[in-house]
Predict the 3D structure of the following.
Amino acid sequence: MGTRIVPFIGYENAGAAIDWLERAFGFVEHAEERYEEAGVVTHAELDLDGATVFVSTPDGYVSPRRLRETSELARRSYDNPWVIDGLFVEVDDVEAHSARAIAAGATIIRSLDEAHGLRRYTAEDPEGHRWMFGQRLEASE
């Protein structure tokens, strides 16, 4: 098995985030890998076409959205359409993926465009994490 990177993402309410990530971005939770303490998700694993993301609600965690509401420095660092401490996910059909995210109420930071050999878009989840989804463009011959 080659190298594999599995990101950990904190959420103030990981349970609600999991539901939203499934609906908007197509993730599937591995229910047998969900752990809770007093109704708080302490670890869960989500899959999207073989790629894995771990999510949880760490004690005292504050989301990017809340940080931006309370900190001018944090707000300024997100005052652009780029992914800041976020994720890039390569998908097979970025048009359909974008439509699904929009239908689920994702905040679209950057609409579908083409750059760097990708057709891509950037969205923000309800807690302010930024996700860029892209599909490789066919190389012209």
Notes: The chain has one domain: 8-136. The chain has four helices and nine strands. The chain has a mean pLDDT of 93.
